[in-house]
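dumping this here before i forget
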Amino acid sequence: MDTNATDAYDLPPQWHTSTFVPVLKAEVCGIYIGNDKITSHLHLTLSERWHEKEAKDYLSQRHGINTEIFPLINWPSLRYALKKFSAHRRATAVKALHRHLPSQEKLFKQGRVVLSSLCPRCLQTAETNSHVYCCMNDEAFTQRKKDWVELWKQLHRGTTANIIEQTWRFYLQPLLNIPLGNSVIEGLTIAHDEVAGLLAVAVHEQSIIGWEKLLLGLASRTWKTIQDVIDSANPNAPKRNATSWLNTALIN
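structure:
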């Protein structure tokens, strides 16, 4: 029990409960938020809960992530990935996620560039955060394709389920505006039984969240469930679990 937990004795009486909650004898006291027992990082956990409303209000306003969409997203994997990034990469990822990259359109609106909001590479359309994924400038195109190939290798090394791989390719291809070529696994895998139902749910949820947001780390929780179901039925299943798979996929 850390110092913060010990200080719980000094909390106002209305914060205490008279109902039974499981507290180990060695713990002396326990701190709960709703039905969740706080066992570590008390200060961080309480801080996050106190700012939870403001964060959700921001997500709703900025991204349209309302109370129905919020529970669809696998937030722990996004958090894990961001913590693994270097400070510079994490800052860039967060800016991209919240559409705060210094795009030409953003700089033009702010008056920081005076000519136009046109993309300085292709000179065909405004450079928005979305345009970054589909700019047809030769150099940008080549780099984007190179990055995708490397990502695909990493997903394959992570033993991503064939059906997830095929589905992501199908929905991401129009956003990236590049010929993605053949899958590592030839042919289209057909889903059956439980996986077919879960796949329909995952596609529906990701469509609500946004497929472009999948590229930024906002993934439906159901992808992890699909990977777990497929791994469980595999006699030669990889040693990593589905949570580790999604964490690694989002890092890549």
